[in-house]
Design a protein that fits this description.
By secondary structure, the protein is mainly alpha-helical. It contains five helices and no strands. It has helices spanning 19-29, 38-64, 69-87, 109-112, 116-141.
Length: 155
């Protein structure tokens, strides 16, 4: 459905991430040791484009890793770096601990939102390990590089 008076801040930047979404994440982004530079350097719209493009690139590389282990390694490295950078935000999130529940270890939603990245980091490291092992096995077996023959699985 078309919204006739859509403000430019609400317009999708890459189809999914909008500048409005980034504004909602400002308390997280601006307090992260590896993410705080993005808003001053890229601005809100540039940060939305950067994050959206990164997510799509790493996701696509992970998917392509089912057939090409080198692309899978690149995707897993990118997603690992992404989730490490988002997890480093956790200690610096404003009002991260629910005061009404006695504070630490009771997380408020703004901190709990980042916990999913712990699981995604573990998955990324696992995929990285698998793809590196597959790359070494292919190299040692002398199998032709870059082929899609046999559609190998990640296991």
């Amino acid at each position: 459905m078309c919204r006739p008076h859509q403000h430019h801040a609400d317009a999708p930047v890459d189809g999914f991430v909008t500048a409005l979404h980034i504004r909602g994440l400002l308390p997280l982004i601006t307090n992260g040791p590896f993410t705080s530079w993005t808003i001053p350097v890229l601005g809100i719209r540039g940060t939305a484009i950067f994050l959206g493009t990164s997510e799509w690139t790493f996701g696509t590389l992970l998917f392509l890793g089912f057939w090409n282990k080198k692309l899978g390694v690149l995707g897993a490295l990118g997603s690992t770096a992404t989730f490490i950078s988002t997890l480093t935000i956790l200690p610096f999130v404003p009002d991260a601990w629910e005061a009404g529940a006695g504070g630490f270890p009771a997380m408020a939603m703004n901190a709990a939102f980042l916990l999913k990245d712990l699981v995604l980091l573990v998955v990324s490291i696992y995929l990285l390990r698998q793809d590196v092992a597959r790359s070494i096995a292919v190299r040692d077996s002398g199998e032709e590089r870059g082929t899609f023959a046999g559609w190998p699985s990640r296991t």
